[in-house]
Amino acid sequence: MSILIDAETTFIVQGITGREAVNLTRECLDYGAGARIVGGVTPGRLGRDVHGVPVFDTVAQAVAHHGAPIYGSVVTVPPAFTKDAVFEAIENGVKLVVIVTERIPRRDVAEMVELASMHDARIIGPNCLGIIVPEVIKMGGIGGPAKDAAKAYTPGPIGVISRSGGMTTEMSSTLTAAGLGQSTAVSIGGDAIIGSTYAELMPLFEADEQTQGIVIYTEPGGRMEAQLAEWVTANNSRLPIVAFMAGRFMDEMPGMSFGHAGTIVEGKEDTATEKIARLADAGITVAEDIAEIPSILKSKMGAPV
Amino acid sequence: LALKGAPLGFRAAVRFFEYEAKEIVRRAGIPTSKGGFAKTREDARRLAEEVAGPVVIKSQVLTGGRMKAGGVKFADSADEAEAHAADILALEINGHAPRGVLIDERVEVDQEYYAGVVWDGTRKRPVLLFSDMGGIDIEEVAEQHPDHVGRRHVSNLLPLSDFTAKECIAAVGVTGRELTRLTPILRRLVDLFVKYDMTLAEINPLAKLKDGTFVAVDAHMDMENEARPRQQQLLKDLGVGDEETRQAREPTPFELAGEEVDAQDHRGVAGNVTEFDGDLGLVIGAGGGSLTLFDAVRAHGGKPANYCEIGGNPSVAKACGLAKLVLRKEGVDKIAVMMSIVSNTRVDIVARGVIKACVELGYDPADKIAIFRIPGAWEEEGSKILDHYRVPYADRSVSLNEAARRAVEAAG
User: Fold this and answer.
1) What gap in Å lies between CA B302 and CA B40, rounded to an integer?
2) A249 contacts in chain B (CB < 8 Å)
């Protein structure tokens, strides 16, 4: 199985007539069994189509046209309009919103996340590339054109969660080359506030029978790794986890301000070195080199290396 | 790690000077101590005369340690205030020349409080902080006197109700008229935090005067960089120019040139250039790939001349401009062109850009490009172009770490 999406998942693309969204739509339609993109939304463009996907002015029109609830939406609209687009999706019954847009002020993100929680919906991103279930479906630009995605991603037992979109593919490709396929790979976005953190996705992987191990990509900033370490310890997770931490050089840079009053709210924000120690304390191995991840994972999973 | 200063572009916030922060507080309807901002000793004197009493003269710099450096002085007369202002205006603090001085009335304080709002990234909500031990760092209070810090999260969607502020104040045992007078102040602080996209809004100290009224004596405000476009009015009112980055340090000429390269068209990113003093030029991407590669180059003993990020499929012109900028940098002999697997950015476009840069500068690409490791979209086309110029192409079978090792080796 997979987490978040499967072959049956229906979704729309908001901002579908934008250049990148047109490409993304093509890629998703071409990948695996072909994504069920049941509509696109660009205000004022009702009646057009993008690669055969009908375009609507509003999400409500897309839902009415589909004749049933639509599960997901990929949001690609510019930052000034993203909040409205996400509110529109959630108010119209969408349960999974993947926000591709970058540079959204965190106040807007926080509002979207709170609205989503009130409607039992989930947000992935912003500033992310989406979700891929190898050879089945991808929702978002993750992995790129279908033929490129096919080179990097193969089905298998590893769940991948990454704060960097590109590194999701880099790490999955490394796993694939070593014979370790992926159950689901999720690009969660690198912003200060995001819809779904590592710890918030772990229960889904934990409950997924296909998933036997986890790889995460992490960076300096925030307390998301500490939250993951706490979750893993508190829930006695069955899943071995290997992490890769990029941006270690930032520890040595002068003027990097981690903290101030924020430190007393969430606890002291970790430097890269502190994050590594915290992850290690929770039994999460931090790899020095991405190329080492497959062998570390295999030995942690008890498989022959 | 030798760096020209603090890095640019990472977790950036727009920082405000204290005099601006106090203006923001005032606009939100929170009373502040009397005084104002002066750029000259004459203006400082005029302001001191207006206050007509003891004043404090504070250097307006975006750096800490003002008090220790002699950037804060007290005066009882306008003459004295003018003399101190002249000294402080000429005093650099941590390499920062002051923008001016703040002349503030010295209020008769009965008690100092603290009020602040910050983001809680884990709970994804703003949190209101209050303490009856103001005037010192809130971190210190939280550590040594945790029962003197009240915290209440506020909803992002529901309007703030006064009770949240009251609970936060009451949590540290403050009651009576203090509680009722503090409530609207905290409420307005939350409102301004949200309205102006702050990442930090702090009044410290928030002083209770002898007559029982409250004034904000000092304030600290940071605004989210991403919110600049929609906070144009506030920035305009405060006189913050578009050219002012308000980051931890000013960009170097090399970095400014990098911003120009990135701004030449709207296709993708070839920027976030940060200057270092090494000799290996880096043309790297994407975001996570750049961080990973920079670490790897250093781990293999390489000395990067710069940091940068390519992503989102930039034009040939931008890739070329970035490569030229790095190639021209003093001390740079070779460039390493490396990215994590690309899915949106096209390998052939980056290849065209970096080769064009070499050729236009009169170099042989095969000599100047220490390594080209970008697997992914349009890699066959990219590899053909490189082949034509005898630049070896490293595909995904070469790990990021191995690519960095080869780059360092080739750079000698």
Assistant:
1) 48
2) 1, 291, 294-295, 298
Largest distance between two CA atoms of chain B? 82
Contact B295 A246 (CB under 8 A): yes
Give the Cα separation of B286 and B264 in Å (integer): 19
> Three-class SS of residue B230?
helix
Q: How many CB pairs under 8 A join A and B?
A: 195
Could A166 and B340 be called an inter-chain contact, meaning their C-beta atoms sit closer than 8 Å? yes
Measured between CA atoms, how close is A170 to chain B, in angstroms? Answer: 5
When the pLDDT of each residue in chain A is averaged and rounded to a whole number, the result is 93
Q: In this predicted model, what pLDDT tens digit does every residue of A257-277 receive, in sequence order?
A: 433 455 556 665 667 888 888
How close is the nearest chain A Cα to the Cα of B33, in Å?
23
> Which chain B residues contact residue A129 at CB under 8 A?
343
pLDDT digit string, tens, across residues B137-152: 888 899 899 999 999 9
Is the pLDDT at A213 greater than 90? The verdict is: yes
Chain B residue numbers touching A118 (CB-CB < 8 A): 157
What distance, in Å, lies between the first and last C-alpha atoms of chain A?
24
Instruction: Confirm if A269 and A258 have CB atoms less than 8 A apart.
Output: yes
Is B124 within 8 Å of A113 (Cβ atoms)?
yes
Q: How far apart are CA A266 and CA B364, in angstroms?
A: 53
Q: Quote the minimal CA–CA distance from A126 to chain B in Å.
A: 13
- Express each pLDDT in A74-110 by its tens digit: 999 999 999 999 999 999 999 999 999 998 999 999 9
